[in-house]
Amino acid sequence: MAAVTLVTLTALATLAEPVVAFGAPYHHPYPAGNSNCSSSDLAQLALGKVLSDAAPVFGIYADVESSTSTWMREYADDTLIVHMNLPGTHDADTWNYSLATQQSLDHVTGLANITEFDPAAYRCQDLSMVSMLDDGIRVFDLRYAFDVTNTTLVFWHGPGLVSETATVDDVLFGFYRWLDDHPSEALFLSFQYEGSTTPYGSNDAGVQLQLFNALTSPAARQYFLQTTGSIGTLGEARGKITLLKRFGNDMLPAYYTTALPGIHFSPTNWTDNSPNITLVYNSSTGATAYIEDYYQPLTPANSTAEENIQWKLNATEAHLRMAATTHPNDLFWSFASSTNLVNNPPVTPAIQALGNGSLTPNGGVNQRLVPFLEGMKGKRLGIVMLDFYEQPAGLLPLFLSLLPPNGSSGGGGY
Prior knowledge:
By secondary structure, the chain is an alpha/beta fold. It has helices spanning 6-12, 40-58, 99-104, 106-109, 129-135, 168-181, 205-215, 218-223, 234-237, 255-258, 305-325, 349-354, 365-374, 395-401; strands at residues 86-89, 139-146, 153-157, 160-161, 187-193, 241-246, 263-264, 274-282, 287-293, 331-335, 383-386. It contains 14 helices and eleven strands. Helix 11 runs parallel beside helix 13. The radius of gyration is 21 Å and the shape is globular. Mean pLDDT is 91; it is low at 6-33 and 407-414. One of its GO terms (molecular function) is phosphoric diester hydrolase activity. This is Phosphatidylinositol-specific phospholipase C X domain-containing protein.
């Protein structure tokens, strides 16, 4: 294991920071560089405790180096992020959400009158987030809300509570630790408030303030790229996390919005369930993102899994063709993930991504993307979010091979 950085040790002292009063300038009680740890051994134990707490969501940490864990080091520093192909995972924190997880949390979710349901409705991944990192995933879709006691920020997918104890803070330290071991890589974390969790849950001032605290702690200021409203070069982003803000701070004074780094994708302007969203994320420069987030195919009632898969595939492929041929210096962000739980019978994320056996002989969206991607060699596709990304086995390696390091990086159409 690589040596723990000074900022990581320092940040351990800030995990239990008090919430500040609204309207006051935000100051952390421990200045950067000041650590209460008396020895490196104690600091290692403290970090181990944090990573252990994060494990139900982040996974069990291990220092792994492979061609996929460091794939970005082959690309030049002056490569523009908007010219790259970046694989991501939708609802990345749901990999551990199973019937066993659900039943182990019954005593907690019962407090909010959440009854048991099929966990397949909300599980979108099978491998841990640390495995995703080592496999080459660089963009993570993370959904947060207060726990059932309205005390700490944890991870949910709808009413599916992933863990009561693995907090947003804990999981961030997992990403920080991984970047210490892989400084050539650049990560992109998309945070979105998850509604429909508990009957009384809301994106209130307490939620917004806790997230702000987590994203502006001394550790966060070290590891999050401290730029606002722009996406630059890979060299600028290496060893850092770029914050993708799919949330607002409308319940807090304006200071809390301006003090956060990253790129703001306004929830108001992110059209719900749309195959083609145009979102200006910097009004001063006109910087624009083109987004496909057609997460529930609008198929006829009682449609088959085959129909739902094909409708979703059509939307994703159309957007990827657009990414490959238009707006070369803008950001493209496509979601290959989807579900249709209101269908009869329900179509789960796994069925959409991987198919339903003999009922879908050509597989799901993932399998059908393979021949499409094989025809996209040398093309910029941008960010592509996947469910169950490791299936089929060749999908992610194929995606990562589309733009070789020595190829042109001039945008769409190259």
